[in-house]
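Reviewers of the previous submission asked for a worked example of the structure-prediction workflow described in the proposal, so we include one complete record here. The input consisted solely of the amino acid sequence. No template or homolog information was supplied to the procedure at any stage.
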Amino acid sequence: MGEMLQFKRPDGKTCPGYLATPQAGAGADGFVCIQEWWGLNEQIKKTADRLAEAGYRAIVPDLYRGKVAKASDEASHRMANLNFSDAAEQDIRGAVQYLKQSSKKVVVGGFCMGGVLTVLAAVRVPEMDAGACFYGLPDLPASEIKKIKIPLACHFANKDGWITPAKVNEFEAAIKQSRSQFEIYRYEAQHAFMNEARPEVYDAVIAKLAWERTLKFLKNALA
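From that input alone, the workflow returned the following structure tokens.
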């Protein structure tokens, strides 16, 4: 369904990405879908395909430039070596700008590490129109979170040892002071509950609910 391509970053360098196009074609709203810490693997490509089926032009920037982690220690190493500011302000912003050449509005959304980058992009990518964050939060002071102006839907797991309920509460307190029209959802689930390739944490019922809530939120946010 999708294809690999190269798009330009604001600094003029290129970034590879996977693009899934809906039936509506190039005029449909865009969705920059951000990978988990594994990289641009088959699971995240399938997520982009699902977004295309839902009517979005979905692009997954290849933040690791072709490298895909198979084990969690390798994934952790790759994430630790990623320059998050460059990923948000260059790769993700470049993907938003690429989609905006023909899409009127563009969403950024991601999972785990991609959730971190979604919130970071909400602060630092001016062309972004809305965001969908799944169980990831950047280590930003409340003064930065307060700058967010766009609508955000955020989904968190109560049994998450990384993005703990306490961290979610801190984030909620900060974003309440912003101009963002936001929705925060908490689920009795584990980190990565949306990832069907990880049966040890995947929760089909909760994943379906979070997906439906996200699509409904985006329909309203982009209207």
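The chain has a mean pLDDT of 98. We consider this example representative of the routine output the project will generate in years two and three.
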